[in-house]
Amino acid sequence: MAGEIDTIQTFYQNHFKEPIEAIETLPQSGGNRKYYRITTASKTIIATYNANIKENKAFIDFTKHFGLLQIPVPNVIAASEDADFYFQEDKGNQSLLDVLQQSGKNDYVLELYKKSIRALAKLQIQGDANFDYSLCYPNQHFGKQAILHDLLYFKFYFLDTLSIEYDKQILLEEFEQLSTQLSSGKYQYFMYRDFQSRNILVHDNEIAFIDYQGGTKGPIQYDIASLLWQAKANLSVEWKETLFEYYTNEIVKLLNQSFDKEVFTNEYYGYVLLRLLQVLGAYGFRGLFERKEHFISSIPFALLQLKNNIGSFKQILNGTILETVLKEITSDSILNRFTSKKANIKTKLVIEINSFSYKKGIPKCENDNGGGYVFDMRGILNPGRYEAYKKLTGKDKPVQEFLEQKTIMGTFLTNVWALVDSSIENYLERDFDYLVINFGCTGGQHRSVYAAEQTAKHIQNKFNLKPILTHRNRENWVR
User: Fold this and answer.
1) Of 80, 134, 147, 296, which has the fewest Cβ atoms less than 10 A away?
2) Is 352:470 a contact under the CB 8 Å cutoff?
3) Domain limits at 83?
4) 244/196 Cα distance (integer angstroms)
């Protein structure tokens, strides 16, 4: 990662006169793209690094095309010669989902949704005109094979992880029929492919689209389905109906073909179902296989949304094996697998988390329960061996980036949390009152501090508990 930052910094300085004051590493998305915010005296810009050159070129070319139509996308300022990284306008950190979760479902947020939908309709219909679909990656058209891929994504990465019994051959035949049906949609224009509130940025009451590089030719209802049925947004039935009606009106204004609202709506519900299944597949892959916490925590939202709206797909499902499977995966027994027990006002459980140095010994438990977990971090590469990190700690961003990018820390903590979570769930169920979790390394300054900090955040987010966090060797940290 340091090499990427050096390359980006060199390229920037060769093309722009204003010196860089800071480069901040931003959180990664579901893909492999890496984002950095470059700060100068007068502005900030976003640098994106991605080894997938075709994907980068798609984003750059799409952006130029949509920019000419005055669709709200960030301007690409510059790109490297081989397109492994590029600079774009900084549209801020706040997504439409952030605004929704902070402000609630009010008139202001509803207007932001409408503004986004107006721009989406323009991007889809006007953006389709003279668009070079040979630029699309990985598919030039969202046809039968792409739809079947999404259905199988759900099957292999989510459904089959649950170990439930069903007729696999019949389900595959149903997927074949469903993909044929959905690929014959009447309204085929530019399809954003991942149009959700996380990919809509809000700044000064204006919106901007990001992450549209996966766009292709396809059924436009898929995009509005992605937005309105996003699990974590949890939009009400009233909002979904109001915004879908608003969308159809915007589409009618722009279409150069006759519009059949009944056909359009019937197709829409087919793409809603497809999108819900595709999202569960993505959550399964990113969460259950790659063990990314955000995706694991999203699974209950997606299952509940499917459960509460399964009646909307009655015409499509109509006594199929798929209908039986969906009812089973949204049953209480499956939901309970993914729903963590939360602390409440009556919860007695106190969780103590310590980082420590093995040179000073394992911390003694002052509580009468006798102790708890002790995790030895010394098998992980120590940032303290390197001069650049020696006087920093696991609380500092450069050390955090080193541990996340250069070591097995992510895998280590995934395994730690699997153990710890099982105890916390059991302790909450049995009304226990104390649990100790200790992380030790050589100096108690880098690895153990990072692990303790991240575990405290994990527990607070997952269980609504705020641990008592202590760094036992703080007074001996190298400064």
Assistant:
1) 134
2) yes
3) 2-89
4) 14
